[in-house]
Design brief:
- The strands form 3 sheets. This protein has a 5-stranded antiparallel sheet with strand order 2-1-10-9-8, with helices on both faces.
- Helix content is 45%, strand content 19%.
- The chain is α+β, with helices and mostly antiparallel strands.
- It is globular, with a radius of gyration of 20 Å.
Length: 296
Amino acid sequence: MRKIIYLTTCILLLNFIKGHAQIKELLPKVKAIAAEHPANIGFAAMDLQNGKLYEYNGRQHFPMQSVYKFHLALAILNQVDHGILKLDQMVKIEAGDLDKDTWSPLRDKYPEGGVEVPLSELLYYTVALSDNNGCDILFKLIGGAPKVTSYMHKLGFKEVNIAATEKEMKMYEKAQYTNWTTPRAACDLLNRFDKKMLLSASSQEFLIKTMSDTTRGSSKIRGQLPKRTPVAHKTGYSGVNSDGITTATNDIGIVTLPDGKRFAIAVFVTKTHEAESINESIIASLARASWDFFNQ
């Protein structure tokens, strides 16, 4: 009996030590990757099975860029779930809604405007294809960017602020900084979303599929992961300003491991002079380090 107790104690002790060693493995790797680059980097990753969070600069405010289209989609779909909007309702797109000097596959499809498209299609363009015109049409539909902030705050996410449209960010460079989140808050939001605590089953399925179909930023979170790894994500990118500075290049999402378990990850890279390929590789490296850690 004493031998059994001794062996059991040893096993428990080894598991305890192993568990703590694993906890310490991820963040040193994150810090080592961040130290290689002259940029401000924010990172958070969460085990979606137990809610454990690992963060680096996790409470800093980072400009979101198009990452905020995920928040906007949640707000729109919340109104769908409450019967205020419908996914199959038609939304009028006028020529004046289609900025000719911005990223917009929607404009490329309907260059003259004067058409009606289903709300579901507008959401797909905005999230999966990161369409800037689609984004601003949705902001107008919901009553303005601050409405999304109000929705986030009502959910309890205070470390989020959304104030400027795509058009406003284009016109005023500093407006980019009014749309911010912390990496911690981004992971918390993904966690609540993954737990199906925010949307109806049909809205949840729609948004997960749309995020999984994202075509922009394939070299970010997905960049170094094994092929065919399921990733539902939303990217963001500011472009390079006249001083050669990238204000923000980001990616947040949910990654599914081979055993079916999932983790949430949010990476924000800001104020960097490095080439976008390098910035994307930072995000990819951090995502791979997280995948390796959670896949142990």
